[in-house]
Structures are given as C-alpha cells and as structure tokens.
Amino acid sequence: MLHKTVFYLILIFALTVDAQISCSPMDSTLFYSKLEGLKGIEGDSYGDSVVDIGKSFLGTPYVEKTLEIGDIETLVVNLRGLDCTTYVENVLAFGLMFQNNQTDFESFTENLKTIRYRNGVLDGYPSRLHYFTEWIRNNEGKGLIQDITVSLDGIEMNKAINFMGTHRALYPFLEEDKNYAAIQAVEVELAKESLCILPQDKIESKEHLIQSGDIIALATSIKGLDVTHTGFAIKQNGRIHLLHASSSGSVRITEEPLVDYLKKIKSNIGIIVARPTLLSS
After folding, report:
1. DSSP 8-state secondary structure symbol assigned to residue 207
2. I need a labelling partner for 81 at 20 to 30 A (CA). Which of 3, 57, 90, 165 fits?
3. Could you read off the pLDDT of 87-125 as tens digits, one per residue?
4. Euclidean distance between CA atoms 219 and 197, whole angstroms
C-alpha cells in the first residue's frame, strides 16, 4: 500500500510551471536518459526507427489508468509505467523528436499533447482521444499516421461506439455531468463513421503487406467498443509479431506471430492497421 501511495504522489507532482502537465522528476530524468540512448538509431526505414524506439521500452511495467489522476485533465507524462495506448503515444512522441531533431523536454510534451488530444488541443477530459478509432482518424488528419486497412482489403462495418456512455460508473471523470454530456456528443459523431477492419481470417494472407513499425489495433466484438488493445508490428523470422505493453506485465514482443496471438483472444474480430508518417511541421 505504501508503494502505491508513493507512486501516485510522485506521479501527481507537477514538474513544470505549466499547470496542465503532471510529471515526476523521475520521468524527467528518464526522458533525458532515453533520449541519449536513442541517439544512435539509424533504421533503414522510418518504421524500423519506430520499432527501435519501441524496443527501448522493453520490460517497462504495464500500469493501468496512468492518465486518470487528479481532479482535472492534465497532460500526464509517465515513462515508468505504460498501458497499451500510452505506450504507442510515447513511442510516437519520441519518433517526432527523432525526425525533427528535437532535444528538449518541452518539445516532447508538446508532441505528446498533439498525439493524445483531439486536434492537439488539451481542453478537459472529453478532448482526449478515448476511442482508438477516433485516435487514428484524428492523428491521420494531423499527418502523423495513415490508416492503410482499406488497402489490405479491409471490410467496412457499422457499429455503435458508446461503451463509455453506457458504462459511466467505470470512468471517475464522467461523474461530472458536463464531461458525461461531452462524451455522449463524441459518441454521436462516432456513430456517423463506419469502421474498416481486416478480419482475423484474412490477416495471414495480407501479413506480407504489413511493415515493422505499423500500428496494430485489435478490433473487438465487445458491445460499444471499437478496439481493446494496440501495439506495433515487428517482423521476426519473416513473420509479423506484436510489440506492445502487455497486460500480462510489461512491454514485450509476442512469442507467437500476430495471427496466432489473435486466435487466442475470444472477442477479437480482426485488426486496424495504421502506418506512422510523422510529417514534420
């Protein structure tokens, strides 16, 4: 219990004068240490560089709900514990630094904010891109990624995405009526969009078109949800595996190829594939 208390006290500590950022001194130190370690990255492609950055997090503990702290929405910087989405976000934020020759902590936090929030604007809890399909669309609009699922012969489907609105009690920030109403409004807009998914039984035949560094989002049959997990494609021995922050304990690479890994997930119906482009501003 003491360990958890210390963890959250450290996490909530505001490192910068910007009241919108929550970060610990440990994360600031880790940031500069990681940046130094990434200086030698020279991938043959940008996807390889993304994978190299992703692999630098191997062994980092999986921690749920690292963004759900405090009474107001802040840009949480936590490099010591990651869930699947914050893992992808942090890797891409470092990727932007790598591409744009940035070396300062402020640029990193700006990159993270750009990636995590709708149109790059932090304006309360509802401005965070909670649903990963919207995360993909919004970051595609920013020029940071490209959804390539349709080019893999993905199929379109319509599904109500409203899990947050129908499970209000699971989200402390939704106790506030204003936040709850705003999330419901987001879900109304999401209902206007179809989903493009590469079905599970087609993945193996299209595996050769997936590149290392591509973002893999696991589509689900769970009512009201679009995606349950995400990570990066990594090619090993000619097969695509998943580099991800695993709820089993830490950032790791699946022992089995992605195709076989997905077959063990009862609710999985396929994947969405997005390729990082991270265009310079």
Report:
1. G
2. 165
3. 999 999 999 998 888 999 999 999 999 999 999 999 999
4. 7
- State the Cα torsion 242-45-120-152 to the nearest 10°: -60
pTM of the model: 0.91
Q: Which residue has the tokens 């940035």?
A: 102
CA distance 157 to 115: 26
267/146 Cα distance (integer angstroms): 25
Distance CA 63, CA 131 (A): 19
Place of tokens 């929030």: 117
Do residues 146 and 274 lie in contact, with contact meaning Cβ atoms separated by under 8 Å? yes
Name the 3-class secondary structure at 222.
coil
Within 8 A by CB and 6+ apart from 227, the residues are 131, 132, 133, 217, 218, 219, 220, 272
Beta strands 21-23 and 75-77 are: parallel
State both tokens at 98.
């790598």
| CB burial of residue 226 (10 Å; 0-12, 13-18, 19+) | buried
What residues are paired with 117 via a beta bridge? 128
Q: Tens digit of pLDDT for each residue in 169-224?
A: 999 999 999 999 999 999 999 999 999 999 999 999 999 999 999 999 999 999 99
Q: Do 7 and 13 meet the contact criterion of CB atoms below 8 Å apart? A: no
Residue 78 is encoded by which pair of tokens? 């936590």
Rounded to 10 deg, the angle between the 177-190 and 132-141 helix axes is: 70
